[in-house]
Design a protein that fits this description.
The chain is of the alpha+beta class. It has two domains: about 5-220, Hypothetical protein, domain 2 (Endonuclease III, domain 1, Orthogonal Bundle), CATH 1.10.340; about 230-360, Nucleoside Triphosphate Pyrophosphohydrolase (Alpha-Beta Complex). It is about 45% helix and about 15% strand. The chain is built from 14 helices and nine strands. It has helices at about 10-25, 35-45, 50-65, 70-75, 75-85, 90-105, 115-120, 125-135, 145-155, 165-175, 180-190, 210-215, 270-285, 345-360; strands at about 230-240, 245-250, 260, 265-270, 290, 295, 300-305, 305-320, 330. The strands form two sheets. Strands 1, 4, 5, 6, 7 and 8 form a six-stranded mixed β-sheet that branches. β7 (about 300-305) and β8 (about 305-320) form a beta hairpin. α8 packs across α11.
């Protein structure tokens, strides 16, 4: 069944049922009720590939630091990445920063007000553009995220809903009077009722129209399409220490953790001797003279979206004289810093601070 097969009265009834359910049970979230385009954009970018509970901890903090579009546009990238620290997927922060700077140069100095124009901003795809356009500007466009895909696949009992089908179906269903609420209602339904496993069909307002529920196929819809297995890598970390401080290097402007500060690293096969040689080579490449042999520290893992990294840190004493530059800096483990650090690097710095404290006893 497609949307065109629904009678107009049935479509109206479906919309009323879902919006009524949303009005009664919609989640209370810090960004709900916001119509300021900047605040809506911030929340939607944060929600990309991130759990709501995590975003709730960051949203208010971000707005305290960057309360409006101009504040973000005028900020330095290091401050932006530092405020985002721990939220992950750091490219989102860089894209949001760039989008603010692009919007600042527009004639009215504000974000675009249409779906088509919003989609031209860096890091803004179909879902984010649809969410901002519908919530902040009332444009009758869908915001098809993973939750919406699952709800609609079950509603119409479609095993493999492709992008074109999802876009067309979601567009046809958007409520013309309350497009923003409609999109949020669908997202809420997928997050709280029409869940990936064990959907709570007895609490669903769309049961009268749900084809998958009628056929008993709701837990098989949509089918397939799991995430590919994460690639496993071992990374040797060079902890170059002058006794009190360690050396961090700014990562390249493109790629994983772009623009953040981290220990120099190199991918290795996992053999200890290879890791030791890699650390020595990293030091030499940075023009740092080592004063002894590398000492292995405890390995630890960190999971990225498509990467499962095992970090093998080696600490080695070095001569700090003459070492520095725009992309190198010395930090003292345990001391406050304004540098934007990935979670794994922060964890290692904390371990080094504990090690130093034990050594001082």
């Amino acid at each position: 069944m497609s949307v065109s097969e629904l009678l107009p009265a049935a479509t109206a009834g479906l919309r009323a049922a879902l919006l009524g359910h949303y009005d009664r049970t919609g989640r209370s979230l810090p960004w709900r009720g916001e119509t300021d385009p900047y605040r809506v954009l911030v929340s939607e970018v944060m929600l990309q590939q991130t759990r709501v509970a995590t975003v709730e901890r960051y949203y208010g903090r971000w707005l305290e630091r960057f309360p409006d579009l101009l504040a973000l546009a005028e900020a330095e990238e290091d401050a932006v990445l530092k405020t985002w620290e721990g939220l992950g997927y750091y490219r989102r922060a860089r894209n949001l920063h760039q989008a603010a700077r692009i919007a600042r140069e527009r004639p009215d100095g504000s974000l675009p007000s249409t779906y088509a124009e919003l989609k031209e901003l860096p890091g803004v795809g179909e879902y984010t553009a649809g969410a901002v356009a519908s919530i902040a500007f009332g444009e009758q466009v869908p915001a098809p995220d993973g939750n919406v895909r699952r709800v609609l696949a079950r509603l119409f009992d479609v095993l493999a809903p492709g992008p074109a089908w999802l876009r067309d179906t979601a567009t046809a269903l958007v409520d013309p009077e309350r497009p923003g609420d409609w999109n949020q209602a669908l997202m809420d339904l997928g997050a709280t009722v029409c869940t990936p496993r064990a959907p709570r069909c007895n609490a669903c307002p769309l049961i009268p129209w749900c084809r998958a529920h009628g056929a008993g196929t709701q837990e098989q819809r949509p089918g397939g399409g799991g995430r590919p297995a994460a690639r496993r890598v071992t990374l040797a970390l060079a902890v170059l220490s002058d006794g009190a401080r360690v050396l961090l290097q700014r990562r390249p402007d493109a790629g994983l953790l772009a623009g953040m500060w981290a220990f120099p690293e190199r991918e290795v096969s996992g053999a200890p001797t290879e890791a030791e040689l890699a650390v020595a080579a990293l030091a030499a490449a940075l023009g740092v003279r080592t004063l002894g042999n590398p000492e292995a520290l405890a390995s630890f893992g960190h999971r990225f979206t498509h990467l499962h990294a095992t970090y093998t840190p080696y600490i080695v004493a070095v001569d700090a004289k003459g070492v520095g530059g725009a992309d190198l800096t010395w930090v003292e483990p345990g001391a406050p810093t304004d540098l934007a650090l990935p979670v794994a690097q922060r964890r290692l710095l904390d371990r080094l601070a504990e090690r130093a404290a034990v050594g001082a006893e």
